[in-house]
């Protein structure tokens, strides 16, 4: 990592610095000439000595110090050229003015006898004025260029379709526009600030890409929670530095609203200019507005998808009501007429059967409506206890329920998870011919529920979760559709295949972030 950071320190010079070297060389020559005059030229009086030599000497020294500070700014090459132009213009202009003043005041004097101090002092004054004007001009030009660059970056931000893409645009703009090559963008995800983007230079030279966990103590979380930008000029004296051995000496951390933080780093202490700090805050404001827009768009898209699913569900409900409920209603109507005439017990039995069928359909429709709601609140749930409760609520009709070892815990809605198990168990009871066992066992990425019955033909496995699909005359065709809705509400996945005992096997894949642990080995229950 150290080699990479040394490499980056060379990149921070932003091209050749010969204009600054030339300015420094000329300033040094002026200062040396003033020193020579102070040491070796006799002065006629103290007043003349002070105003003719001491004052210009300190002026030349101030110019030299200014050039050194300018070098520390590591300006881009085009800005160095502009300052060089103003420096030379000031130096030459006043030097010529001093030369012509000498000619005017001492006409007829030989060139070698001219008082060169006037030309030297004028040149020194001109160098100082040119340097000051150049710095002001470059600052204005730099600010204008940076604002144009930020405007272009903002236009790119407006086209970003994700928060991660917006973060990358922000990090790239920090390097190219604000001249902060060590920039990263962290988004809040739960209790973590996760790194989602880095500038090109930082990506090349920094090996460790850290995330920050809430509560572990970090400068990033301190700034995020206070929602105030903060400059850490010397990381060596800070207590909550994530990596105390880092070669980064200072950081400027800017919150991006509730979305995350932007961290700008430097290999030196006190390297951030006031303009860089101001532009970083402005960039963070623009990014926050864009992230707000992306968040609203994502929320709207999610809402539209939910509305579309609700519309589809309403259409499916309408189909069930109009078709499946109509059949038992017709049966009731027909046998009711016969019962009035015959008063036969079997007619009333048929009516009772049709009513039971309607009750099953209504119950499943209500369960299906609730199962389709997205999961808002999750809590730690033990899979074994939920499966056991589901087994107690279902008439297993003699089937043995085996719960495998280390089922563990998940983040889920316990009521709806139990509903899922109940429907899978009930499906095995109703459709698994010749089965005597239902097993629930852990897998590498979730759990599996299987039976040892006749199984599901491969050509029908893709259809069993469809609304209304059933292979039984008494089934509603909604049980496995409810299972599918619960799975989608949790953002999990389910598939069906053949079990090792040739029965049906339902595999539920649970994302790692929803799995808590694996419990100790568990015993068989029935």
Automatic annotation (TrEMBL):
Residues 320-514 form the Histidine kinase domain. InterPro entries: GAF, GAF-like_dom_sf, HATPase_C_sf, HATPase_dom, His_kinase_dom, HisK_dim/P_dom, HisK_dim/P_sf, Sensor_HK_Regulatory. Keywords: Kinase, Membrane, Phosphoprotein, Transferase, Transmembrane, Transmembrane helix, Two-component regulatory system. It comes from the Archaea. It is an enzyme of class 2 (transferase). Its EC number is 2.7.13.3. Residues 445-468 are annotated as: Disordered. GO terms for molecular function: phosphorelay sensor kinase activity. Pfam families: GAF_2, HATPase_c, HisKA. It catalyses: ATP + protein L-histidine = ADP + protein N-phospho-L-histidine. The chain crosses the membrane at residues 20-39, 54-71, 83-104, 116-138. This is histidine kinase. It comes from Natrarchaeobius chitinivorans.
